[in-house]
Amino acid sequence: MPETPAPHPRRWTALVFIALAQLMVVLDATIVNIALPSAQRDLGISDGNRQWVITAYTLAFGGLLLLGGRIADIAGRKRAFTIGLLGFAGASALGGAAVNTGMLLGARALQGAFGALLAPAALSLLAVTFTEARERAKAFGIYGAIAGGGGAIGLILGGVLTEYLDWRWALYVNVPIAVVAAVGAIAVVHEPAGSRNSNRLDIPGVVLATLGLVSLVYGFTRAESDGWGAGATIGLFVAAVVLLLGFVAVESRVKAPLLPLRVVADRNRAGVYLSLGLAVIGMFGLFLFLTYYLQIVKGYTPVVTGLAFLPMVAGMITGSTQIGARLMTRVPPRLLMAPGFLAAALGMLILTQLKVDSSYAGLILPAQILLGLGMGTAFMPAMSLATHGVQPRDAGIASAMVNTSQQVGGSIGTALLNTIAASATTSWLVARGGDPKLINQAAVHGYAAAIWWAVGILAVSATLAFTLITTGRQGGAIASSGSPEGAEDEVAIPVIAH
């Protein structure tokens, strides 16, 4: 195997701008949630169209991720990263200036499209920039903390901006972040020579993957609003299965596939994609129900609600940078991921005891700390392992798969857990004669019922991580760009210690 090139001297400065871009993409998934009621009043958005402010972003983002990752591999990750940043800034400015529903929804879809280019470019730049084991552990520790805690930071920032400025600033705030990150990227981000993919774009694969992922994500959105048995919901799920099976068939035959099956056929990476996607389902349960609980049941303001999530953010940063990063080069990833997901499940288990009069300090605080520490510890090796050992020419598409598993997991989590909570709330209330005075108790009962599911899902995630991920500690570098076609399986992930 050719010698690994010397690390770029400004790689740590580059990490600042890569991390800044990732923070913007992740927090944008939740920052608009808190601003949404104000935007709905201001623009006269109907209740039926309200969900599209969120869905327009997730559909474009989830549906175009594989395409974005491959474009980054072919056109260059630094170029894709910079274009993604500037496009995201423009779309955010357009959304902030929206004068009607259509303009806001179009801007959100554009944000998702540019986010789908930006997110895999950011992670793949990290993968090809940090190849030495200890440095890689530190870099992915920082990145993992942002990937895990960005959603909670979005809730805090969304609350502050909405309460003290205007809902439009939940979108405008992306503009200075994106511009700073783009200028920094142009100045200091370095893409190693010879790491691009010279193949042409697989158009049939693009069409099948995009339509299949959009159908899947939209199917879960419709399940939440129309029910799981609705004709439209079932039709979308059937279409998603057919399209994605067609995608796999095409990818196994074409000369230059959009998603080379060698990327996902690796047992360890498959374990990461599956366990991470499931864990995100559980995480969305926390964001969704705690936000409602704190604001509606407890009467917290948006700002106080956001600040109430700070312990979890602190736990994620600690778990990722102080536990995950320090141990990643010493123990196998599954011995970080499985215990991490179990710790998060234990935090969720505490939240199943939620009552209308529960104490924040006595119940919610310890649950959040456990969740943060657990998810931070697990996210960090997961992010690194998902791109570790991939040939540099495939780094963008491997990174896109990480983001896709998270995006699909988030969509499933929102629809599945929200549906379970709503059904449990209704049943509890009906059993007590529908007394409106009991509405808060009914809602909290529904949250607890859905959180039990999240506990189970996180336990399954831990089991998958422990059984599927068999590699030893990550002590090697990524494969060289000079690796021959098909060599991926031989050099995929160096197994140093079991």
Automatic annotation (TrEMBL):
<feature type="transmembrane region" description="Helical">
    <location>
        <begin position="167"/>
        <end position="189"/>
    </location>
</feature>
<feature type="transmembrane region" description="Helical">
    <location>
        <begin position="300"/>
        <end position="323"/>
    </location>
</feature>
<keyword id="KW-0472">Membrane</keyword>
<dbReference type="InterPro" id="IPR020846">
    <property type="entry name" value="MFS_dom"/>
</dbReference>
<dbReference type="InterPro" id="IPR005829">
    <property type="entry name" value="Sugar_transporter_CS"/>
</dbReference>
<feature type="transmembrane region" description="Helical">
    <location>
        <begin position="408"/>
        <end position="430"/>
    </location>
</feature>
<feature type="transmembrane region" description="Helical">
    <location>
        <begin position="140"/>
        <end position="161"/>
    </location>
</feature>
<keyword id="KW-0812">Transmembrane</keyword>
<feature type="transmembrane region" description="Helical">
    <location>
        <begin position="271"/>
        <end position="294"/>
    </location>
</feature>
<protein>
    <submittedName>
        <fullName>MFS transporter</fullName>
    </submittedName>
</protein>
<keyword id="KW-0813">Transport</keyword>
<feature type="transmembrane region" description="Helical">
    <location>
        <begin position="201"/>
        <end position="221"/>
    </location>
</feature>
<keyword id="KW-1133">Transmembrane helix</keyword>
<keyword id="KW-0046">Antibiotic resistance</keyword>
<feature type="transmembrane region" description="Helical">
    <location>
        <begin position="450"/>
        <end position="469"/>
    </location>
</feature>
<dbReference type="InterPro" id="IPR004638">
    <property type="entry name" value="EmrB-like"/>
</dbReference>
<feature type="transmembrane region" description="Helical">
    <location>
        <begin position="12"/>
        <end position="36"/>
    </location>
</feature>
<dbReference type="Pfam" id="PF07690">
    <property type="entry name" value="MFS_1"/>
</dbReference>
<dbReference type="InterPro" id="IPR036259">
    <property type="entry name" value="MFS_trans_sf"/>
</dbReference>
<feature type="transmembrane region" description="Helical">
    <location>
        <begin position="80"/>
        <end position="99"/>
    </location>
</feature>
<feature type="transmembrane region" description="Helical">
    <location>
        <begin position="335"/>
        <end position="354"/>
    </location>
</feature>
<feature type="domain" description="Major facilitator superfamily (MFS) profile">
    <location>
        <begin position="14"/>
        <end position="474"/>
    </location>
</feature>
<feature type="transmembrane region" description="Helical">
    <location>
        <begin position="105"/>
        <end position="128"/>
    </location>
</feature>
<dbReference type="GO" id="GO:0005886">
    <property type="term" value="C:plasma membrane"/>
</dbReference>
<keyword id="KW-1003">Cell membrane</keyword>
<dbReference type="GO" id="GO:0022857">
    <property type="term" value="F:transmembrane transporter activity"/>
</dbReference>
<dbReference type="InterPro" id="IPR011701">
    <property type="entry name" value="MFS"/>
</dbReference>
<dbReference type="GO" id="GO:0046677">
    <property type="term" value="P:response to antibiotic"/>
</dbReference>
<feature type="transmembrane region" description="Helical">
    <location>
        <begin position="360"/>
        <end position="387"/>
    </location>
</feature>
<feature type="transmembrane region" description="Helical">
    <location>
        <begin position="51"/>
        <end position="68"/>
    </location>
</feature>
<feature type="transmembrane region" description="Helical">
    <location>
        <begin position="227"/>
        <end position="250"/>
    </location>
</feature>
